[in-house]
Automatic annotation (TrEMBL), chain A:
Pathway: Amino-acid biosynthesis; L-tryptophan biosynthesis; L-tryptophan from chorismate: step 5/5. GO terms for cellular component: cytoplasm. The gene is trpB. Its EC number is 4.2.1.20. This is Tryptophan synthase beta chain.
From TrEMBL, chain B:
One of its GO terms (cellular component) is cytosol. This is Tryptophan synthase alpha chain. It comes from Arthrobacter pityocampae. Residues 1-21 are annotated as: Disordered. It is an enzyme of class 4 (lyase). Tetramer of two alpha and two beta chains.
Amino acid sequence: MTDTQQDTGHEGTGVRAEDAIDAGTAEAFLSHDESLRHAPGPYFGAYGGRWMPESLIAALDELQDTFDTAKADPGFTAQVAELNRNYAGRPSLLTEAQRFAEHCGGVRVFLKREDLNHTGSHKINNVLGQALLAKRMGKTRVIAETGAGQHGVASATAAALLGLECVVYMGAEDTRRQALNVARMQLLGATVIPVTNGSQTLKDAINEALRDWVANVETTHYLLGTAAGAHPFPSMVRYFHEVIGDEAREQILEQTGKLPDAVCACVGGGSNAIGMFHGFLDDRDVALYGFEAGGDGVETGRHAATITLGRPGVLHGARSYLMQDDDGQTMESHSISAGLDYPGVGPEHAYLADIGRAHYEPITDAEAMDAFKILSQTEGIIPAIETAHALAGAIKVGQRLAADLGPGEKASDKIVVINLSGRGDKDVATAAEYFDLLPDDSAEQEIAQEGEQL
Amino acid sequence: MTTHPATTASTGPATGSKAAAAIEKARSEGRAALIGYLPAGFPDVQTTIDAGIAMAENGVDLIEIGIPYSDPVMDGHVIQEATVEALDKGFTVPRIFDVVEGITSATNAAVLVMTYWNPVMRMGVRAFAERLAAAGGAGLITPDLVPDEASEWLAASDEFGLDRVFLVAPSTSPQRMQATVDASRGFVYAVSVMGVTGARTSVGAAARAVVDAAHAAGAERVCVGLGVSSSAQVREIGAYSDGVIVGTALVAALRDGGVDGVAELTRELSTGTGKATA
């Protein structure tokens, strides 16, 4: 599979001499059988760590201790498993997508149906786990950041279920554009605070949540929504999402009798991808692909392809790839998908990119929207626009696999698993506007022009 | 950090540390040091230099100049607004050295740079340290860099003889207090309250406990910041600490009254530094 990656001639994957921090690691990885699973942090190669104000270190220590104790407590793992099964609806299905596969060079394609979870995406796995930890720490309040509103809705859901106060920080611009998701959080009992600082986007919502956390850390847990941030968040968020890859690996073996050739996921901060990848990290013949938001195209500067074009730096507590200017100021990211619109990425992804275990490529808005339409019309499944990036990437991966068959191999011998990380109900207005499906004078069009994601 | 050669840290003599020298000079005059903060480039670089000089001429012993940064998680609204304006007007990181040089060449005040870590990392820690030393800077205050992650900075600050001021907070454990005091040089920055920058009517009892803990861990110089805005607070905090840091109130004074406003507030604040009146 590394051949496939090189064939793309893409600069964003693998080790770049200029920024390679730990080039020796790649060789060590390739020549030894060291397991990559269950990496505990705080460091993933040269990435991760705790680039945080001292005021918050004690809270991070407390969280880490609580998490370590909980993981080893059968009572806790049983509680998580019970909620996953009887509240979130796990295990999620693995669905073969035969008509969609025709667009992927004829390889077999399977969808890991995280869209079928309660609240409609993988996000529920993490919020249930962290909310349980908040209770174990005796905290009565959780705070969360959100861009489009998905993690905010999931956090409000978990808080309602477990009787916690919930405050969600959201860029002021986003609260206006996502008015229905704001209402949804409020219906669930959460308070939504519009953030008017800085660029008023997701990164500023995280900044404001951190400011709240510093001031209220005695009573409050910061329920971070992705596998980024300071230790222990990256390894902890991954832990709660590992169920995705574990289930998928078991299901694909059961349905096909073998492991897939490739696994595809979309990457913003990278939580669904790391949960999916984790199940296959030590299966060295399974190629792992993360698809970042290429926005208008990486050459335009309007994108969120952090690993592809970012450089190592620190943001929100972790060292990782980062979209930054020559001064180290964070740059604004752009994507049609609010969930991928973040200028950073989880540190474990940065490490997996450097050592060549996973490959990261950008997908443009247009490519993602094509794939969005194809899946909807071939499988009867409307994906989240975030997820559509993974689908568009899988089309490319499938076509490459089909073009690169060995002697006697058929395309249908090849298997690609895609993490269908979320459903597209929230994106219907955006998509309808994009495909020009709305009458000029409809109320929906007015909403869609504002970028509303229902 | 454990492999780093032990230095004089905040526990040792003032030799070589500009920040320590400034605080010791105040101590020899029977008072706590007054430390003033302004962000670089607000409203422009020359005004920052002029305001820094005005602070030095009106009773500030040590000046902190902040680097405007896109994601200032430890700052409240007043400082955020000032730094956003500085960035909007085109402030770039290398200009920090112009500000430092402009102030140090005109006054005897020690000048520390307060910065979030990514801009330093982007320039290269050693390159940044070298330029800061060449500009006459005393060292760095690092609000989002803890000693655990600071190996590069520990080495570079040793190489160029720069102060490294780490923060301690009410939430800091005894072990971390010891490690942070040991890693610091110049002084230890005691965060008075759990929160972000911004004027408060009271900084509460937590501040004194943090200062006492830092002193007990061997720190000779512990200065208190966050929330201080009046000479009365300076007097109260200066009675148990070695220096008092004022930020937001000075930024607001510059915003509302220009360099004259800064000079006036500095004079008012400095009336609080005499220990005898505490």
